[in-house]
């Protein structure tokens, strides 16, 4: 398949799914002791973690390209062949059918429904076209264009990547989920609809991993944990159903109030739109599953390796994995063995990124998050985390599962006293990771409950996701008009890779999101959230204002400083700088190269500028 991918884009696309979701896991699981339900979780999670890291290293040596990726797939084929030669073929067609046959039909139905519901929502909300253009919607719609900018810039020469919307700075962001999407897209060609499909697959993988974590406590507990883990949340659904019963519009964000009573966004909303979470959450679930038996040296080594590999996918997940390990170590102190430290060594695979400008991660003692966002701790957490939290607390009155209980408490407490993120608000992500042990304990508490009672409690736990889905599929925020889409495609086809565009510092720009080119700056939240000092961001914004609305010398100064090749004028630029077209038309070293539907691109003539 990998070899055929050189000749066919379609086969290459299929190969990308197989080699990034299946093959590495099939190779490695043979060297460890797993139950069947653990295999189904381990294979896709480890495959993504390993394959992306592998292609990254290979690309540093050979250069990032379609051929490099396919060569990587050939190497993985050779490794898999060697494993089969040494260990024998485990997944022969007949055996595979037998293994599928052992899975309960209700479990298969559950995961199929989760996948299809998520796919349906995402296909209607991310890169959904209508008469006006491309829809990118949802409560956190502004994140998605940034992910597209990363993906498309990497696939258009930006490797190793600098920040695509803040040119001149290394990409200090946990971007490997986007790099995975870039890899899959690169072997085929431009395919923006790939992102929502991959998001849905990752959500399905997360549900399977939650099932595997809790399966030792019975199928009922595992199913409850998978459903609650994916769709569960607090009591904010009362606003949605209140509006529904009163005959009012339900197409509004009823599930989240920034800085308000319902101040934590639901887990399902995060799964739909927070791409680093799509790998960070399953990775923590897998680590918790592996840490269940601290006496198994191989599983400890593997847990450490997963922790190290997840850093550039989600650095908060990396820290949370260490929190889980620390608590498991604490619980087992009375019978401490030197082998318990085996976790640490393989986790050091993250060091090159930690020391070499990877995702930013700094810690300060600070209570700012609690002061700004938690008005009443008791009601805040009960209202936001709902029945699952109450069921998890109920588990504290029962024996066992202290590795889950301790991890839950630690992750809930940390944001109140420590700040890791430049933007204080981003500490809410710890509650998303705390949701894993909360949902797991909620499932365990329902292990021996009557099925009808368990069903009702699970149903009441997931109603908030109804409002999440309704809001997402009924809003139509525009990611790009058709005019913007056309200028983005023109940019891809007619400008050199890695070209720098001057644009307004808005959330997105078609020349980057679609065109895959770099730009001088974007909305303040992106660079600030990635550790750029506010003073530097404001200075760059002022320079952009002066370039569009000031003197020719100010424009020239910015162009020289950031090596700008093109100046873009679209709706945001016309709105903020209404006289910029006449300004640019009067400059001899700017040549108009695109002028359609109020979309303008000027090329900088460096020879006339006197470079």
Could you characterize the architecture of this molecule?
The protein is of the alpha+beta class and 611 residues long. It has 3 domains: 1-103, no CATH class; 199-473, no CATH class; 480-609, Rossmann fold, CATH 3.40.50. It has 31 helices and 10 strands. The protein has a 5-stranded mixed beta sheet with strand order 7-6-8-10-9. Strands 1-2-5 form a 3-stranded antiparallel beta sheet. A two-stranded antiparallel ribbon has the order 3-4. The longest helix is centred in the N-terminal third of the chain and has 27 residues, at 36-62. The two termini are 49 Å apart. The mean pLDDT is 91.
Write the layout of secondary structure elements.
Blueprint: H1 9-21, H2 23-28, H3 36-62, H4 66-87, H5 93-102, H6 105-125, E1 126-129, E2 133-136, H7 143-154, H8 176-186, H9 194-214, H10 219-231, H11 237-245, H12 267-273, H13 275-290, H14 297-310, H15 315-331, H16 344-347, H17 351-355, E3 364-365, H18 368-373, H19 377-395, H20 402-417, E4 418-419, H21 429-445, H22 451-462, H23 464-474, E5 478-481, H24 482-494, E6 500-502, H25 510-513, E7 518-519, H26 525-529, H27 534-549, H28 552-562, E8 566-569, H29 571-576, H30 580-585, E9 590-596, E10 599-604, H31 606-609
Parallel strand pairs: 6-7, 6-8
Antiparallel strand pairs: 1-2, 2-5, 3-4, 8-10, 9-10
Helix pairs in contact: 1-8, 3-8, 3-9, 3-13, 6-9, 7-8, 9-10, 9-13, 10-21, 10-22, 13-14, 13-15, 14-15, 15-20, 19-21, 20-21, 27-28
